[in-house]
Every structure is written in structure tokens, then in C-alpha cells.
Amino acid sequence: MNAPPAAVARAGARCVQRAVLGEEQVRAGDAARQVEGCPPDQYPVIGFSRCELIATIPASRVSAGRQAMVEAVALPAPWQVRVEAGDNVAVADTLKAGTGGSAGMRPHELLEASLATCMTISARMAPADLGIIDAEVRVRVHLEREETATRFRYELLLAPELEAQRPAIEEHIARSPVRSTLSKPLTFEPA
């Protein structure tokens, strides 16, 4: 078995089994993500507190030739939700009035994570354009919910050797796709 990647080991990954549902193969990751201690037919899934099966997207989730982007499914534990996007799975959770827990990120943390990950990816693209591979960049995001506005505060953290590239990196994160999406007026409507 491969040693666990540091991020997976820190996140406390659990093992999940592969199975077959009808003719569709249930997918739970690949061998490159195996965690030491998982049997050969199991794979790690970050955030699960018990064994879960993860299926490929069935035809029923594809409408008008377009794949469903994200689906959230309530789990038996209070306020836990399994979030699926294609083959990727996570658990969200919250604590309200003493009920629930912390098995995964809270919903607003997922929103912060969406922006932070997109901005970090965009930030890494600027040095990559200059031939600097594996640039050490971080973006921290904090969501502030106010009565009349929602504010995303972010902080760009760079390795000292990248400080000279800060203006180019800031330009990239200003154009990051999730930031652009969240900067437009939002509409919520049933599908």
C-alpha cells in the first residue's frame, strides 16, 4: 500500500468499499489515493464517519444533455449531508441548538472554500505562466453576512520569493471564475 498523502492523513480519511449496482460500477477513488490501512478493494473518502458507497452519475441525473453539477443528499445523522459532484464526494454538517456535529464543513464554509480554492488555483497560474512550477500560494477567505450585504474578505499569502510577482498574481485572482460568478447579481429558481 502507498503511504497516505499528508492532506488525506490530516483530514482523517475513512475507507469505502467498491461495489456494483446493476450495471454501474460504484467508484470510490483510485489506487493512487489509497490510504495505508485500507484493504486493497477500498479507498479513502475524506469526511465520512462510516463506510459509504459512491456511485457514478446515473443517467437519471443527466437532463437535456447536461450533467447535474452538485447534488446534496441528507444522511441519517442530524444535519449531515453528502455532497456529490461527479465522482467527488464530501460531507457537510452543522451544529444547531446542540444537535448535529462537525463531520464536515458547514454550508457557509463550503461557500468560502469554493472561493478560496478557485482564487488559489488562479493565483498559481500567474507564476506558472512565468515558468515557476509548484509556487507556494494560499488564499484565506472569510464570509461576513450583514443585513444589507454579503462580504468576502480574502488574504493572499505568498512565499517570500513570489512577492515580486504579487501584482500579476493579484490580477489573476481578481479574474478567478468563482469570484466573477459571485460578483454578478444572483438569481435562485427551481430547475
TrEMBL record:
EC identifiers of the protein: 1.11.1.-
Gene3D superfamilies: 3.30.300.20
Pfam families according to UniProt: OsmC
Alphabetical keyword list: Oxidoreductase, Peroxidase
Protein name per the record: OsmC family protein
InterPro entries: KH_dom-like_a/b, OsmC/Ohr_fam, OsmC/Ohrsf
UniProt GO MF annotations: peroxidase activity
